[in-house]
C-alpha cells in the first residue's frame, strides 16, 4: 500500500451541536461549506480550497460512542495565512487562544477549542510584521 496523504477527518454530534460546529469552522477557522453526497443522514462537508477536509456527521440522540473516542484526540491543525487579521477576529469574538511556535521554523501556532472542546491549531508560516 502507498499512502497518498491526508483526506479528511470526521466529527459526529447531535444536529443542534453540528450546526454550531459548522458555524465555528466556517466563521472562525475559515473553511468553506461545500457539496456533500446525498447520504441518508444529515451533515456538512467543509473545504479548504478544493479539498474536503472536515466532515460533520449527525449522530442520533444517545448514540453509543467508543470510550477511546474522547480520550486520545488532541487537536487538528490547519495551515493558514493572515495571522494579524486572524488574531483580531478571534479577539473580537472573545475566543480564548494560546499562542505558541515551532522552534527553529518561524511557524506561529494559535491553539483554540471548538464548541465541543476539540483542539484546533491554526498554523502560520508567514513572517510577522
UniProtKB/TrEMBL annotation:
List each copy of the VOC domain by range.
5-125
The organism sits in which domain of life? Bacteria
Regions crossing the membrane? none
Q: Which InterPro entries match?
A: Glyas_Bleomycin-R_OHBP_Dase, Glyas_Fos-R_dOase_dom, VOC_core
Task: Report which residue ranges the record marks as coiled coil.
Answer: none
Family annotation (Pfam families):
Glyoxalase
- This one is known as Diguanylate cyclase
Give the species.
Answer: Inhella proteolytica
Amino acid at each position: 500500500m502507498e499512502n497518498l496523504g491526508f483526506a479528511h477527518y470526521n466529527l459526529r454530534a447531535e444536529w443542534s451541536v453540528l450546526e454550531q460546529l459548522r458555524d465555528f469552522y466556517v466563521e472562525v477557522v475559515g473553511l468553506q461549506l461545500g457539496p456533500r453526497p446525498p447520504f441518508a443522514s444529515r451533515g456538512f462537508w467543509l473545504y479548504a480550497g478544493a479539498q474536503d477536509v472536515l466532515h460533520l456527521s449527525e449522530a442520533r440522540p444517545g448514540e453509543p460512542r467508543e470510550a477511546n473516542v474522547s480520550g486520545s484526540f488532541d487537536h487538528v491543525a490547519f495551515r493558514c495565512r493572515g495571522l494579524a487579521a486572524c488574531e483580531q477576529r478571534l479577539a473580537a469574538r472573545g475566543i480564548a487562544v494560546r499562542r505558541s511556535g515551532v522552534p527553529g521554523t518561524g511557524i506561529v501556532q494559535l491553539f483554540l477549542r471548538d464548541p465541543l472542546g476539540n483542539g484546533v491549531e491554526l498554523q502560520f508560516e508567514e513572517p510577522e510584521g
